[in-house]
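Figure-free illustration: sequence to structure, shown twice.
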Amino acid sequence: MPYHVAFDSSGVLAGIMLREKIKEALKDAMRARESCRVATMRLILAAVKDRDIALRVEDVTELDDDTLILEILSKMVKQRHDSIKAYEEGGRLELAEQERLEIEIIGEFLPEQMSEQEIDAAARAAVQETGAESLKDMGGVMAVLKAKYAGTMDFGKASQVVKSLLS
């Protein structure tokens, strides 16, 4: 049974923290004996714990926990897309299917992703906001987009749009 996370209109989690929702989903998957789901939840929690340890060393305290977890989840989805491509090129279709299943499970904890049109509009607004005029200003534009749209925007696509706007 899929575990769905509720987000409000701005893409922020409604109610409890994302970390707690993931832990509850792990418990539910364990009770239901869904081995793939349990393994994926454990991967997510391990990645979060690794980030916690890294941040302890860096002594960063101003970052929001949910924002950090959304970044981790987005990165995990991207890694799995890369793996799918490699597995399909290598003829390992069963492994590619396993990665797709993990993407589906991880995606349940991400807010709805922005459409191509929304990414384009946001990129244009960020270019205007920063006053960017050339490719050397791209870093500032991307920083604005990452601050405003963490977890909801595909920054690979956004990067392409910004690059075309500044070229």
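We now fold a second protein in the same way, so the two outputs can be compared directly.
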Amino acid sequence: MQGGYQTLAAGVEATGEFVDRRSRFIAQLKHVSSEVEADAFIAEVRARHHDARHNVPAWVLADGRERCSDDGEPQRTSGMPTLEVLHGAGLADVCCVVTRYFGGTLLGPGGLVRAYTAATQEAVAAAKAEGLLVTMTQVTSVTCVIPYSAYGRVERLISDCGGKVKDSVFAEDVQLNCAFLSGDEQRFVAAMRELAQGEDLCLVGEPTFAEF
């Protein structure tokens, strides 16, 4: 997902509800980072609402994997609409399970699509309103080992290049573990090479998605 994405903060859950002709649709949204975590959350919701007619799951991961199920509802009336709301909101690494308690009246395919869409939208809106969403951007880590005499200068250089010091290890020399928005690290690495008169003091990691 080039450019970044939003996800739910870890350890929290957002919910939204929609009612149509006494059928209740309860959307439960949670952060997941793997298919295993998604499956665990789906099982948790199914146990929580074991008396419900349907528990419709949809999940999407940052690596592009995704899945949804209609869980007994007519084909493409529930799982796909739920997944499309997650896509439309720019969310990834999330799982949404929409629980339906049947109200006694058939809603028809169009009514089901509207209901599952609305419930999921309510959960996403609740996550936004409660400040539970976090933005993940592509970040590159850089580790450099420098003498104590250069510590202050290098710290300012990291800041000037848009980076952040995540951790400092003080031993015989100083090890600075930094993070940059991917691409910004190149200017820092070049400046460090110039500072060290051609010596390469930086170890550059692979880009990953993280809060920055």
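Summary for the second example: Residues 134-210 form a domain with the Alpha-Beta Plaits fold (CATH 3.30.70.240).
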